[in-house]
Structure formats: structure tokens, C-alpha cells
Amino acid sequence: MLSHILPKAEISIRENLRWLYILRNLMLFAVTFAVFIAVNGLGIELPQNQLWLAIFAISILNLYTWLRLRTPEEVTEHEIFSQICMDVLALAYLLYLTGGASNPIIWVFLLPLIVTAIMLPQAYAWNMVIITSCVYTVLIAYNVPLPAIEPHLAHPAMAELTPEMSLQMHLMNDRRYFNLHVFGMWFGFVFSAGLVAFFVVELSKTLKERERNLADARESALRDERVVSLGTLAASAAHDMGTPLGTIAILTHEMVEDFPEHRYPELYHKLMIVQQQIDRCKQALSVMSASAGEMRAESGKVMLVSEYIDEVLNQWRAHKSATRLKLFVSPNVDMAAKIIAERTVTHSIINILNNAAEASPDDAGIEFHAEWSDDNLFLRIRDFGPGLPAEFIDFAGHQPVKSNKQGMGVGLFLTYTTIKRLGGTIQFSNLDSGGACVEISLPLLAKESIHDQFAYG
């Protein structure tokens, strides 16, 4: 209930009505207990018929609320405010029968005011302030006074009392009534203090949690802003590099024709390597341009997880065929599990594999562990290099690094942002046995979504 202190909380209005139902049950129990103690414990003569009638009316209202919670109709703020107003009228009638403003539990009008301020917008709270203040003012002048708390003597016995004894008895009666009033005020203070402390503590927790959420949102916004800036720079670089790269490709092709393999084998081999690297750069620029602009439809296709892993590894091997890779796939996996194969995720995993391959010695290679459940895909990529610097692990992926000494820079930042954007997680760590380890978790496509896709596709 306390998570919706602010007007635009995410909790539903129906949940507010449910909490109002619970609080009204507590009020019914407290009123019933108070009437029972006053009549049977303190011997106060109260208009019990009228009091039980008011308690019965509150019970009927709560029964209606219980039935209302089981209906599909939408609950409105006006409906909740109307029910709180009925509670105020019921409390006013109970207090009218028991002394009005002189009743020590007159502070009970604070409860509907607090509930209104928590559950409803500010306008309703000020209206409740006006209503409770008016009711309190009316009860000062119009009420049924509480009877004296004393043994009720027969009228002939009262006639035999002397004026001094009668005055002394009235003083004792006033003192007992005053003590009862003081006790009621003490109980009201203790209850109100506990209630205020409870609400303030819960409010503080809610505000701190909201501040954390806002801080995370600001961090995500800053990270996304950096990604957008990098995407803009990438598109600009792809456009600027297209023409000189095409010129280099033409010149390389002419040099290959001028220096045939049978006459210049060593130079011809080097030119072929240059030509392969130029083709790789052109392919990368093409993908960069497509990613910065409109993504192609096949970039988000649905694939089996096993096929997706094979595709990622095949794409990586096309450029890192010399690196040894040890593949470990858990045997206890659902072979029918599917994933949305986005191009950005594929590039993120390949980037991690490239970084691991550059950090590991050629004879050691890297390890690739894969397992998945019904909901998530878990990948673990390990290298056998010197590991990550301790200060690097603290901000790895949160911001681009200035140095590319360990082979991790802007690409790692984009990888981290991409996986976080899709609801996944990525963690970096150094192993005691040596080398660095990257653990990635990606959400899988729910089976219900797959069924819906086939049903409506």
C-alpha cells in the first residue's frame, strides 16, 4: 500500500481498494473491542443499540467492498473517496453517541485523512481535510455526553447524602472521568506516534527505492546517449571511408594484375592478403551502415538456440580460423528452445570472442561454455591470458575506455549496452587459475510467444 505514496504510482487502484477493505476490518475489530470494554469492563452505560447498528452498517459496507473486489469492473478514485467518506460518517455517528469531541479517541479522524493522502491525489486529501474538520467542529456542539463513571445509587440513597458527601462523590467521579480521558489521550498519542513512524519509515524506503530507480534510469539514458553518438560517428565514418577504401581496392586489383603469381609469388601472396583485408573492411562498413540506418528484417529472425550458437561460432571462425576453441555444451538442454537472433547480439558475442582470442596465447586457445533453460541462455567465455586489470573490472562496459591495450574498448561498451538493452546480464571476472572470464545471460523466446507467432503468423 505504501508504494503508491506519490500520485503516479504503478500500483493499481484496485489494490488501494483492497487495502481499504483490510483497514476497515481492523477498524471494525477495534470499535467492537472498545464498546465491549467500555460496557463490560468500565461499566459505562452507552446506547448499545445505536452503537451496534452503526457497527452493522460498517460491516455491510465492508461486505459490499469484498464483493466489489471480485467483480471485473474498473475501480475509480472517486469510488474509493466515496467509501472513505462513508467511513467518516460512520465514525462521526459513533463519536456522537459517545461524547463527541470530548471523547478521548476523537483523534481517530486522522486515520481516514492519512489513508486519503496516501491512496488518492492531492485534491482528494484537501477535501478530506475540510470534511473531517467540519465533522469535528459539529461534534463539539452536538453530541450525547458520556455518563458519569460511578456506581449508580438508588434515588432514596442519594437523598440521604449530605451536601459535603455529594460534592465529594462528584469530585471523585470527575477525577475518574478525567483519568479515563487522560488514558484515552495517552493511548491516542501512542497509537498515532506508532502509525506516523510506520508510514514515515515506509515512505522513506519508497523514496530511496525510487531514487535508486531514477539513478539507474539516468545511467541508462547516459549510456544510450553515448551509444547514439557512437552510432552517428560510425555512420559518418562509414560514409567518409567508403571512397578511399574503394580507391585502395581498385589499386590493389591493378597491382595483382601487374604482378602475376608466377613471376612475383611472394608479392602476389601479400597483395592477396591486402585484398582480403580490404574486402573485410568493406563488409564491416556495409554492416555498420545497415545497423546505423534501417535494420534488415532477417536481423531479428527466430532461431533454435543450438543453430544460433553454430551460426555465431561459424561467423567468428571466418576471421579467427587459427584460434583454437574448446566448445562445451551442457547435455541437459531443451533442443526446442528458440531465441531472437538479433544482429547486434551476434556482433556482441563475436566481439567478446575476438577479445578473448587476442588475450590468449596461440597454443592455449579459448573456451566457450553454453547451456540454456526454458527462459535464459547462459554463455561463458574464458581466455588464458594475463586477465583483466582490477581497476578495469569495476567499470568494464559502463563507459568506453581510452586505451585499447587489452583489446577491449568501445566495442566492449557497445556489447555491454546491447546485452543490457535486451534484458540480459554480462559479468567480467578474473579466474584464480589464470585468465579472464565473461559470463553472459540472454533471455530466450517464451514458448507462449512461439505458439502465438505460429497461430497468428
TrEMBL record:
<dbReference type="InterPro" id="IPR005467">
    <property type="entry name" value="His_kinase_dom"/>
</dbReference>
<keyword id="KW-0418">Kinase</keyword>
<dbReference type="Pfam" id="PF02518">
    <property type="entry name" value="HATPase_c"/>
</dbReference>
<dbReference type="InterPro" id="IPR036890">
    <property type="entry name" value="HATPase_C_sf"/>
</dbReference>
<keyword id="KW-0808">Transferase</keyword>
<dbReference type="InterPro" id="IPR004358">
    <property type="entry name" value="Sig_transdc_His_kin-like_C"/>
</dbReference>
<protein>
    <recommendedName>
        <fullName>histidine kinase</fullName>
        <ecNumber>2.7.13.3</ecNumber>
    </recommendedName>
</protein>
<dbReference type="InterPro" id="IPR050980">
    <property type="entry name" value="2C_sensor_his_kinase"/>
</dbReference>
<dbReference type="GO" id="GO:0000155">
    <property type="term" value="F:phosphorelay sensor kinase activity"/>
</dbReference>
<dbReference type="InterPro" id="IPR036097">
    <property type="entry name" value="HisK_dim/P_sf"/>
</dbReference>
<dbReference type="GO" id="GO:0005886">
    <property type="term" value="C:plasma membrane"/>
</dbReference>
<dbReference type="GO" id="GO:0005524">
    <property type="term" value="F:ATP binding"/>
</dbReference>
<dbReference type="InterPro" id="IPR003594">
    <property type="entry name" value="HATPase_dom"/>
</dbReference>
<keyword id="KW-0547">Nucleotide-binding</keyword>
<keyword id="KW-0067">ATP-binding</keyword>
